[in-house]
Specification:
This protein has about 280 residues and is mainly beta. The chain has three domains: about 60 residues, no CATH class; about 90 residues; about 120 residues, no CATH class. About 5% of the residues lie in helices and about 40% in strands. Strands 6, 8, 9, 12, 13, 14, 16, 19, 20 and 21 form a ten-stranded mixed β-sheet that branches. The longest helix is centred in the middle third of the chain and has 10 residues. The protein is elongated and about 95 Å long.
Length: about 280
């Protein structure tokens, strides 16, 4: 195995005993060892290059490559996905920074639904037909791993997508729910919803909330706990304008069941369009 650092003679001039300053190359040289700490394979130093420059390069610390910004594209590709909704896995993308010798990350592998394959470059199309879902609140995680040119692991990067229950808000003219089926229908009938992990939410009322016969409803998973406050337009407490109703088991659009709490406004047409309600 050829272990010479350079492919040609290492002739130099200057820098003799008692001289002032370092020597320089008489002939050009080219590196022939792949993994010098600070000098890439094939680096050429022309005649006249100071030896100080070469040794400065040789002693430079090795900086490993970096992977970052992993992103997984799903369909739907919303920030949160409703519990039970099956999402198509479409593709992945990420960024890399080469190491100090100009080499990209080595032996990269992308683990997670739709992938679990070796990858190169900065993107990867998912295995055709791949899907992902959760039937309870939580997160799915994808992990991109890799190594440097010495086969040492480098910092991995992850991406997460979260599944959440629906927190519903709106105003309808309908009978109060009396069983799980009618409660499920009411949740789906409410015009606004957010996918949340707690009872903290803000909604803006519409004309529906100010229509005669329409009562304003708030519905969310019972595990979030009872409401503590509702603030209208950032100032006025209006929790007492609502009545806590019976809890029911609600089946969502995707067939997943969870117990829900319900709050109903004490009067119809209770809030003008544009009114903000901060719920907690």
């Amino acid at each position: 195995m050829d272990r010479k650092l350079f492919g040609k003679g290492f002739g130099f001039s200057g820098g003799g005993s008692g001289g002032s300053g370092g020597g320089s190359l008489v002939n050009p040289i080219t590196t022939t060892v792949p993994y010098l700490p600070g000098i890439p394979l094939g680096t050429n130093y022309p005649a006249g290059t100071l030896l100080e420059t070469i040794f400065d390069d040789l002693l430079a610390p090795y900086i490993e490559p970096i992977m970052s910004g992993l992103s997984i594209t799903l369909n739907p590709n919303t920030s949160f996905i409703e519990v039970g909704n099956v999402a198509d896995v479409v593709s992945a993308a990420w960024s890399v920074v080469n190491d100090s010798l100009g080499n990209p990350p080595q032996n990269m592998n992308l683990a997670g639904d739709g992938f679990n394959v070796p990858v190169t470059g900065t993107s990867q199309v998912a295995t055709p037909g791949s899907t992902t879902f959760l039937n309870a609140p939580g997160a799915k995680t994808w992990t991109l791993s890799g190594e440097d040119i010495h086969a040492a692991p480098i910092a991995s990067v992850t991406f997460q997508k979260f599944w959440r229950w629906r927190f519903a808000f709106g105003a309808v003219n309908s009978a109060d729910p009396t069983d799980d089926a009618s409660a499920s229908a009411l949740v789906l009938a409410l015009q606004q919803f957010q996918l949340l992990a707690s009872k903290v939410a803000t909604f803006i009322c519409t004309a529906d909330n100010n229509t005669a016969g329409n009562f304003t409803w708030i519905a969310y998973p019972a595990s979030f706990g009872a409401l503590s406050n509702i603030i209208q337009n950032g100032a006025l407490p209006v929790l007492t304008a609502f009545t806590a109703m019976s809890n029911f088991n609600v089946t969502n659009t995707y067939g997943q069941v969870v117990a829900y709490r319900f709050y109903k406004s004490n009067s119809d047409a209770a809030f003008a369009a544009g009114v903000s309600l901060a719920i907690s």
